[in-house]
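Q: Second attempt. The first request was missing the SMILES, so the protein and calcium ion are both included now.
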Amino acid sequence: MSARRCAALLLAAVCVSATAGAAIPGDLNLDCKVDTADTFVLSRAVMGVITLDAEQQDAADVAPIVSGASSPDGSITVADLVVLLRAVAGLQALPGGVNVPSVSSPSGNLTENPITVTGVACPGDVVKLYVNGLVRGTVVAAADRSFAFPLVGIGYDTNTLKAKATAYGETSAFSNELSVNNTSASITTTNPPLGSGAVTVWPPPRGGGYYELTTANFVIPSGKTLILPPGTVLRFQTGSGAAGGGLEVAGRLLVQGALGGVVTL
Ligand SMILES: [Ca+2]
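A: Got both inputs this time. The predicted holo structure:
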């Protein structure tokens, strides 16, 4: 969604084009709370002392109030400041919203598999992780705003990582995008976890790498699917007693062998 945003500077009106996300109404400093710190930011913006970015403009547009409800009009003026002051004082309810998350690691060259993608979103928001434009799973942000997503089977060479957050029925714009370069010549993964999403893929490691299960019994739970694409090698430890690895399928196991790309178990 694209919108024209206008910030009134005394008698002059400055309009900027902005790509609206779905920021938390009133949360101008994007800390997931609406309080006096936000009124300070908005008052400085209305006076023209600072310029709000696109997400802040989206959060700032809380006026007018129509039939008791915030009805954003694409214009940011002192009227928005009045509404925000009343909201902070508990005199005006504002609707829920969602801030844009950020992903912070990993980046650069990788030699590990799986990797853990970390980042920040508002507490309780459902964060959807995208790898090369495809959803690879979801995770809920913790009370301290952090989230961590175990990602199994990152592809070779360049991969892009980014996220969206959902809360109160609103979905944010995309986060920042990280570029991750998997340069590993050979990767061996022991006891790889299943991703938090419904589907996990263990692609074939390059250069003779393989997956190894050393737990007594690795379980694919009901509702989860594990896909082994052509070329994947899955080894089971043959230790003594109960130490030997096993695979129990309560959900789905999809083994995708092909000519020239057998799956080895
Ligand atoms: Ca805030």
